[in-house]
Amino acid sequence: AIYAPASAAGGPARLRILEPDGALVVEVPDVRSFQWVSPAEIAIQVPGSADAPVQVRVVAIDGSLVRELGSWIASDLVFKHDGTGFVSVDEGFDRLGAEADGSARILLHRSDGAVDRPLARIEFGRLTLPAWDPLDDQIAYLETPNPDCPICGALLKVVSSDGGPGRVLADKAGLYGRPQWEPNGSRILFT
Q1: How far apart are CA 36 and CA 38, in angstroms?
Q2: Under DSSP, is residue 17 helix (H, G, I), strand (E, B) or coil?
Q3: For residues 98 and 83, what is the distance between their CA atoms, to the nearest angstrom?
Q4: Quick one: three-class SS letters along 84-122?
Q5: Mean pLDDT, residues 82-87
Q6: What are the residues facing 106 on neighbouring strands?
Q7: pLDDT number for residue 133
Q8: Is the distance from CB of 179 to CB of 140 less than 8 angstroms?
Q9: Does residue 158 or residue 76 have the better pLDDT?
Q10: 3-state DSSP call for residue 165?
Q11: pTM value surpassing 0.85
């Protein structure tokens, strides 16, 4: 089991890894978010510096550092089920947050953190809540053309992991949670 209760001040928390019987394996301090990369590795986002506000690392089950993935302003890092890469949402910033241009992209990264290619882009608006299908072939995400009104005209879209135009699945999607794929990949839940 793995969990990270929020700190009393609402900031970074301690990531705790537990055995099935509840015994504590390790604590990792100052974790903003986390997710499994593989049965033996966990990706964590930790506070960085003013120039690079989010540091992304992969740690082993014992809490030891496996690799640094770099610094991001981007949000919504979501790893592939097989751990060979991940996507991030880049809201018009370069890698370290300079020069916002109003656009948003979903970027595919290799497992070392390097950008492989963009998968989706909107010139003005927001892309949020990406979710890999069980086979890592497609990504569901929400597109909001009006960034000033996050619930106005939100679209649930799917894009191939090879890139190309996103396909609209629903034109009245809410923004209340990450889309979730059925385990066999045939359907998507969303609110």
Answers
A1: 6
A2: strand
A3: 29
A4: CEEEEEECCCCCCCCCCCCCEEEEEEECCCCEEEEEEEE
A5: 82
A6: 89, 120
A7: 93
A8: yes
A9: 158
A10: coil
A11: no
